[in-house]
Structures are given as structure tokens and as C-alpha cells.
Write a structure and sequence with these properties.
The protein is built from 16 helices and 17 strands. Helix 4 packs parallel to helix 5. Helix 6 links the parallel strand 3 and strand 4. Among the domains are: 42 residues; 150 residues, Alpha-Beta Horseshoe (Leucine-rich repeat, LRR (right-handed beta-alpha superhelix)), CATH 3.80.10. By secondary structure, the chain is α/β, with parallel strands linked by helices.
């Protein structure tokens, strides 16, 4: 019985709303204990929706209420072992004092923490407060720090002050400079333990400044399996440094995500560095503002990666279509945000058909870019013909998400194997029709369920008119067997 619960708990946490999960815990004492155990020992910031069970504190009132209610609590009051704090400039000292009080009492129970600092938060208080808070959380496994602060270059004089978090597996940092990021990385993380690293600099040194010490720091992280780098065009050269350091470490990088605007980059060096992870890479995600710097050489290099199973991309058709037409590995998950001038729907359908034996999940957003307008006009372009092309070529599809739909959803009934379907519509007329479609599903229309016998969940986002105003609306139906 216990083994069965431990197996299904991650799936339950992913799919159930928070209220439903909380109700499930109340089934009996045994279920409560085992679900909590499964969550707290088998979760990670990437595999489970931590936000569902995170205790969030954004003002003094929330802290006061929690500290009062838990004044005599003898153990762990944090169901998800996850905390989130928003530090504002107003009442900063008193808020920090109460956060430290909370952490002194319960910090040993915390596995995941999100620290968000308001812009221009005092840098001295940031550093001293961060040091104090993290010293009370020795069992931390996942840490997110989001801070846009002035004068954070002072971190160069702030060496060996932060505690080493021996169990930290996931670090996500959004900050001001490369130097701050690597000060945190070198002081907080154990090179043999850290597996997931997200670096999203909001403001980088520009023009680019090479930092050999930063590269040397990351080059010791030999167990790194996921690397994500985002930011402006100024971040592109830093991405190369991070990849070089990971290659020097011999890291078995399985997931690479990068998001950068167009900018100057040594394409050949980039291709060579990505090639170091050819035998490991399973998930590649890139968004590059059209992806113009992703040349044919990049496409021809990536298509030979034998273990690639998931591809997430946001770029021009001229980049994505050749990649999909040549890729040799059997993709099971594809997320496409594609900008096109004139989509050939037949070629598009045949290209997706290359993965008809393996593709289980597809998220699709197609935008038609009219270059003759200044500024360019973007028109949403997913319609019945696109549905039909997908349907005919992807018989194994189980999960379908369509973003920016400007057409009817009636053709969804041709997807007889779907388990989950989500659509986001852009117009009132088609949104209204889609909401009516979901209502028919709720009413268990035999003619619909006969076709879509495997469907478990359908969700539609769109617009309705209320008193002459265009309002957003979301309708979701989860089928109960």
C-alpha cells in the first residue's frame, strides 16, 4: 500500500488543484502521513508545482498571523516545506526581523525557498539578511533569488560569508551582474551536489567583460544536469562562458534552455560548445527573438543528438522547419512558437508526421508575420486546416495545447486519442463557441464522448462581452470516470 501511494503521489500533486489535494489528505491519518512524506522526500522544484503548497509571506500581517498561530507548534507547520518571501523597502528592517524569527523556529524544515527583493532594496541589508536567513536553512534543496539592486558590485568584497548549503540541488538567480551570480554560486553551492542552475541576469555588463574567475568557479560543477540562461542580447557572450565551464567540468548536461535577443555571438564557438553535450542532451529549449543567429550549422549539429526527446523553440519558420525535417531522434514532446510569412500547411503536417510513432505532447503557437507593415503586424493563425493536418499525422498524441487560436474548435473531435486538451482563443465569437463546446462535454454528450473516449481534461481560455467590455474567461472540465 505504501509503495503504491509513493508512486501515485507525484502524479496527484501535478494534476489535482490545491483544494482537492488538501481534501485527499483528510481521507485518514495514514493517507495524510504518506502523502506528506512522498511530497517532502520525492519532490523537486522542477518536477512538482511547488507554488501549490508554498507558504507565501508578502506583508507584515501575514507574518504576524503565522507566527501567532504557530506559537506552540511542536514540529513542521509547512506542508510543502516551501517558503516564499517578498522583501520591500518599506518596513524592511522589521519585516526582516520577523522573517529571521520564523526561520529560527522552522528553518530546518524548509526544503525550497523563494526570496524576492523589491527593486533598489538596500544592498547592505540584502547581504546581511541573506546570510542570516540561509544559515537557518541547512536542509535547503532549492533556492530562488530575484533581486534588482543598486551597488551590488560590493559583493566582490563579500567573500566567504554566506553558508555552504550542502544539500542544494537547484539554484535560480535573477540579479544585476555576472559577479553577483558567481559570488552566490561559489559560496552557497557544493559542486558535487548542484544539478539545476538558472541564471537570468536582468542587467549585464555591456559591452561584454570576460570573467575568468567566474568560468573557473562553474567549471568545478561536475554534476550539473540542467542549465538555463536568459536575459537581453548582452547575455549571449556569457552563455558561451557558462557552456564552456560546463564542458570543462565534464557535466552530463541533459537540459539546456536559453533565451536571448539577437546579438553578436561567435556562432562556431557556440555550435562547438553545445556539441560537447551531444551524448547527454535530452531537452533543448531556445527562444531567440526570431532566432536569426541560429544558422544552418546549428541545425545540422543539433539534428544528430541521439538522446534528444523534448524540443521547445521560439523562432522563425526558416530555423524551426529545417530542424524538424532533419532531426533524427524520436521526439516525444514538442513546444513550438513559430513566426511564419506564409505557412505551407501540407508541408507542416508532413513534417510533424515524422514523429507519428513517438510524439505524445504538442504545444503549438503559429504567428503570421506581415513584414510589409511598420511596425510589423502579427496575426494569429491556427485554424481547422491546421487541426486536420495534425490529426492525420500524429495518432499517438495524448496532450495538445493550442495558443492564440483564431477559429473554431469543432475539429478537436478528430483527436480520438487525446487525454488533455487546452486552447487559448483570441476572439469573442470563437471563444463563445468554445465555451459552449465545453458545456456539451460537461453534460456528457454521448456523441462527443463516443469519439473522445480517452479525454480526461479540457480547458479553454478566451473572451466574452460583459456590458460592452471584453473580459477574459477560463472554463475547465475534468472528466470523472
Amino acid at each position: 500500500m505504501l509503495a503504491n501511494i509513493l508512486q501515485v503521489a507525484p502524479s496527484l500533486l501535478n494534476k489535482l488543484p490545491k483544494e482537492a489535494f488538501m481534501n485527499l489528505r483528510e481521507t485518514n491519518v495514514f493517507w495524510k502521513q504518506q502523502l506528506d512524506l512522498a511530497y517532502q522526500t520525492h519532490s523537486s522544484p522542477e518536477t512538482l508545482p511547488i507554488s501549490k503548497l508554498t507558504s507565501k509571506f508578502e506583508n507584515m500581517g501575514q507574518l504576524d498571523e503565522f507566527l501567532h498561530d504557530m506559537e506552540s507548534h511542536p514540529g513542521n507547520p509547512l506542508l510543502g516545506r516551501s517558503l516564499s518571501f517578498l522583501f520591500r523597502r518599506h518596513n524592511a528592517q522589521e519585516f526582516l526581523r520577523k522573517v529571521v524569527h520564523l526561520m529560527d523556529r522552522f528553518g530546518a524544515h524548509v526544503h525550497f525557498m523563494n526570496l524576492h527583493y523589491e527593486e533598489n532594496y538596500d544592498p547592505i541589508r540584502f547581504k546581511t539578511g541573506l546570510n542570516t536567513i540561509l544559515r537557518t536553512a541547512p536542509n535547503l534543496q532549492g533556492l530562488t533569488i530575484k533581486a534588482v539592486l543598486d551597488q551590488l558590485d560590493e559583493f566582490r568584497d563579500y567573500q566567504d560569508v554566506l553558508p555552504k548549503l550542502a544539500r542544494l540541488k537547484c539554484l535560480k538567480v535573477s540579479s544585476t551582474t555576472n559577479r553577483v551570480i558567481f559570488a552566490l554560486l561559489s559560496q552557497l553551492c557544493d559542486p558535487g551536489t548542484l544539478q539545476q542552475l538558472t541564471l537570468n541576469p536582468w542587467r549585464m555588463y555591456y559591452p561584454y567583460q570576460n570573467d575568468p574567475a567566474a568560468i573557473a568557479t562553474l567549471a568545478t560543477f561536475s554534476n550539473l544536469q540542467e542549465l538555463e540562461v536568459g536575459g537581453t542580447h548582452a547575455a549571449l557572450p556569457y552563455l558561451l562562458d557558462y557552456l564552456e565551464a560546463a564542458a570543462m567540468a565534464g557535466a552530463p548536461l541533459k537540459v539546456l534552455r536559453f533565451s536571448c535577443a539577437n546579438g553578436l555571438i561567435d556562432v562556431q564557438r557556440f555550435i562547438c560548445l553545445v556539441g560537447n553535450f551531444k551524448e547527454f542532451l535530452e531537452h533543448l529549449s531556445f527562444a531567440a527573438n526570431g532566432g536569426r543567429f541560429l544558422s544552418n550549422e546549428f541545425v545540422m549539429n543539433v539534428v544528430t543528438f541521439p538522446k534528444l526527446k523534448q524540443l521547445s523553440s521560439e523562432a522563425l519558420e526558416e530555423v524551426l522547419m529545417p530542424l524538424l525535417q532533419r532531426i533524427q531522434s524520436p521526439l516525444n514532446k514538442l513546444n513550438m512558437k513559430m513566426v511564419t510569412e506564409n505557412l505551407n500547411k501540407e508541408v507542416f503536417g508532413l513534417t510533424l508526421g515524422r514523429f507519428k510513432e513517438t510524439l505524445k505532447e504538442l504545444e503549438l503557437q503559429i504567428r503570421f508575420h506581415w513584414y510589409r507593415y511598420d511596425p510589423p503586424r502579427v496575426v494569429m493563425q491556427i485554424n481547422d486546416e491546421v487541426y486536420i493536418r495534425i490529426t492525420a499525422n500524429l495518432p499517438q498524441l495524448r496532450v495538445l495545447k493550442l495558443i492564440d487560436v483564431d477559429g473554431s474548435l469543432e475539429s478537436i473531435f478528430q483527436f480520438s486519442t487525446l487525454k488533455r486538451f487546452h486552447a487559448k482563443l483570441v476572439g469573442v465569437e470563437y471563444s463563445t463557441q468554445a465555451f459552449e463546446l465545453v458545456e456539451r462535454l460537461v453534460q456528457e454528450s454521448p456523441s462527443i464522448w463516443q469519439i473522445m473516449s480517452t479525454l480526461q481534461e479540457i480547458s479553454v481560455e478566451g473572451y466574452i462581452m460583459i456590458d460592452g467590455n471584453k473580459e477574459q474567461k477560463t472554463v475547465t472540465h475534468v472528466r470523472e470516470d
